[in-house]
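Appendix B, example 12.
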Amino acid sequence: MTTPARRDKLVNLMPKYSSKNELKEFVSRGLIQQLLASGAEDDEKVKKEADSKASELITIHNKAMLAEKVADSQADRELKKTYAFWFLWILIGQLIIMNGIFIAVGFGLLQFEEWPLNLYMGGTLAEVFGVIFVITKNLFPQTKPTSY
């Protein structure tokens, strides 16, 4: 059975970690308490085993987080590809329709007054360029992704 004094002594044996290693310190403390509860006797051996297990757990955690970030980036890339594909075809269709109307008016197949036709053509072109600008700005942001 571990006495509170012995437990405090073991916890104080742990080196003080910097703020980057707070997780390791937390895990080490928990492992030391578990090892003490299981009846371990040698204080230094308990500390070394706790530090070793804490490092292993943190490595496993970091690998899992990296794998999750990679999977998230791949899913994000696929979503961007899908959106880019469909927006591209929508814009192509819109430009084909606009040019078809322009050609039909030129051959006299459709009759429009000058102002509505100019507004339609200008508005369609402005919409196409605006959508392209918004898509490229969101698909290719200026911020750099966080390092893994």
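The first helix runs from residue 4 to 13. Confidence is low (pLDDT under 50) at residues 14-20.
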